[in-house]
Each structure stands twice: as C-alpha cells, then as structure tokens.
Amino acid sequence: MTTKISFQQTSCAFLVNGADFLAVDRVDLDIADREVVTVVGPSGCGKSTLLNMAAGLVNPTGGQVYVDGVPVREPGPERGVIFQQYALFPWLTVRSNVEFGLTLQRGVSRAERRRRAQHFIDLVGLTDFADALPKTLSGGMRQRCAIARAYAVNPSILLMDEPFGALDALTRVQMQDQLLRAWSAEQRTIMFITHDVDEAVYLANRVVVMAARPGRIKEIIPVELPYPRTEAHRLSPEFTEIRNRVWHAVYHQALEEDRAT
Ligand SMILES: Nc1ncnc2c1ncn2[C@@H]1O[C@H](COP(=O)(O)OP(=O)(O)OP(=O)(O)O)[C@@H](O)[C@H]1O
To answer: Could you say which residues form the signal peptide (predicted)?
Structure first.
C-alpha cells in the first residue's frame, strides 16, 4: 500500500515562559493512501499540533512530515483542513462559499464550479439553503457548509480537527455517514481528530491513541470492520469490543498522568 502521509520522528516544541515545551515527541506514523486514521487522546496531548504539522501550519522542530514523499513546508491545495470552528464568508451565500475555493483553481469552468458546488451542497443536506447567507443558518448548518466547501476543492487529503464537535448528536452521526460516503466515492486519505471514542472507531481503519506530556503515540488500534459501515456495525459486539479497547487505552493513560502530577 502506498504511504500518503508519513510522520518520521516528528517533534514539536513550543517556547513557553522561556523554556521549551515538548508538545509532540518523536512521532512515527505512516498513513496509507485512502486510509482513514482517527486520533484520540486526553486534552493537550498534541493531537492538533500533529495535524497542524501535516497541514503545514506548524513546522516540526525535529524530524519531518512527508506527503507523497515530499517534506511539508506550507499548506497546499491537495490538503483540505477542516476545524471545529467554521470559517465562512458572512457576505457570501452557501453556494458562493462552497464555490469560493474552486474560483482559486485554474481551469475549472463556471458551469463545472456550479455543478461541483451543488453536488457537495446536496451531499451535506443544504440543498434548500444554497442561496441563504450564513447568519440565517444554525451552527450545525454553517459547519456543514464549511465541510462542503472543503470537499468541493477535491483535496486528496482531508485533515479534520474535531469537525463535528459542535454538532448535535443526530447531525453528528449523519455527518459521519456523509463523510464515509464522500470518502468511498472520492477515495481520499483522512486524518481525523476527535474526543468521541465512538466516532473514532466508527470512521477509522486505525485509531491512534496519544498520551500527553510529552505528546506521543501510546497505541494504534486497528478497526477490523468492513466498509461501508452502517448502524448495524455501531451496534455489533465487535464494535463494542474495539470501542472498549480504545476507551481503556485513553482512560488508563489519563489516570497514569494524574498519578504522575
Ligand atoms: N502555539 C503554541 N504555543 C505554546 N504552546 C502550545 C501552542 N500550541 C499548542 N501548545 C501546547 O501544546 C500542547 C498540545 O496542544 P494541542 O492543541 O496540540 O493538544 P490537543 O491534544 O489537540 O488538545 P485538545 O484536545 O484540548 O484540543 C498543549 O499543552 C498546548 O498548550
């Protein structure tokens, strides 16, 4: 299998009160082309820092991150980043927001822009709101619009940092299914951070469990459930068993940390 994203002895230290604070310590992780990898771990264990290094928003202070074998130095159009906080242009409609990223791409005709935007607006369930302004939408709808915009640019990699964190439980589950549908249709590589263990297991091919101080990989748990995933998988004994294993890994290392402080 081809490696898409490769963290090789990747570290990141921040200067805090005049001293180096090691947020990520020598992470080795290969994410295969078209794989979905989720990352869980206690608050502050370096999940976002790891993702931001793959995005090219934060530079490693040790080691390197490679995408398609090339060291990451800056953000690039092949990597779509989605954060928990939706960032939409308030003066543009849903459709124009989704089309915006496409206007930056050369060689995409106006008709093609329209078609692609409409496809992803439909996919995230905003068909009836395509001409609405963001201020008239709920928080969940705005986030779905931000997600449609990231999908529309058609990046080969999606880097997602708690993208569904602010959504209600039902919308969240719907968005997970939409993400998997979009993923299987377009075959992207996904790195996805979440605090929700069920979400981590439902989406992933592998779940990376991180530990804090310093931020590092504690365990990688494979999820041997077939795609496409459905409600039946969520309710299966296999799912429960994997979920318990991930939860155990996160919970026990949080306890260990508490004891250490
Ligand atoms: N720019 C920065 N300057 C200084 N310290 C930082 C900076 N960014 C992150 N940190 C520190 O690095 C550590 C890891 O932060 P990071 O946001 O990556 O963790 P996280 O696992 O994503 O946390 P959460 O789950 O709470 O979002 C934290 O202790 C944080 O305070």
So the answer is: none
